[in-house]
What does this fold into?
Amino acid sequence: MHPLHQFRYCPSCGSESFEARNEKAKQCTACGFTYYFNPSAAVACFLKDKKGRLLVVRRAKHPAKDTLDLPGGFVDMYEPAEEAVRREIQEETGLAITNCRYLFSIPNIYPYSGFEVHTLDLFFECHTDSFNQAKAADDAAEIIILPPDKLHPDAFGLQSIKKAVKQYRHNASKTTAV
It folds into this structure.
């Protein structure tokens, strides 16, 4: 199915002659406008304290309500991904981070109000001094602190987060192997 299947009308002239041009674009046969459908940027964070524990959250909203998640969300317009990480962690946990490093990215389809939002999820590992002041807010219903070996992909509800947890655990096992 074309990623723009839900878009019937040209956003430029309003014509219903908005047809697939290729696998990522639609073109209006009435006015010639072409819309290229590119992913939205989102961030998620493996947040560690000085003891090496990880902070995860329980999702307060759908999709995947009540499952585990990493703190994160969509990158705002004109916002660097690193700032989005800081903002999302602050919004969901009340914590400030001391450093942050980019890990990897995973393409994703995020279901939102019956709409498929194609995203490129950017994963970071960040640190904070302590989790003592963490409070669930915004999209987070609960704060959960885990040792890294208790981080299980199946406890997470969103597919890209499950993949990221698997990759993070795999990368961590390679760096600790003797």
Remarks:
- The beta strands are 18-22, 25-28, 34-36, 40-48, 54-59, 68-69, 72-74, 99-112, 115-127, 140-146.
